[in-house]
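name: query_chain
kind: protein
chains: 1
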Amino acid sequence: MTNILLKTFSEDDFELLNNWITTNEDLMQLAGSALVFPLTKKQFIEDLKQENRYAFSVFKNEKLIVYAQILKKENSFLLGRILIGEKENRGQGYGQIIIERLLDFDFKKFKNKTAELNTSLTGIHQQ
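structure:
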């Protein structure tokens, strides 16, 4: 699994990300009530413009497999949104790898000493 690459989210990746969100429940799992189903590119991009929000596209062998987002806070950061897109990629350990990469990025970039984990991610970090 070393072929995992974390890149800044590109609007070009939106269509594939949106294809992963087929129900209101999928969107609620990703964003809670912050976004409304069906997700539009406009509302998604507006959400990304919020201050201190960083979004990532995660690739394995050049194929987009995960969307991830962090929120910078005053003295910490929140691992807030992670969506492992295609169902066959779930349960493969990608969530744990992504969390580790995001933590590494955050601790190095922001020099924070603490991180918070969104409660909807508990299934990922317990694996």
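note: The two ends are 16 Å apart (CA to CA).
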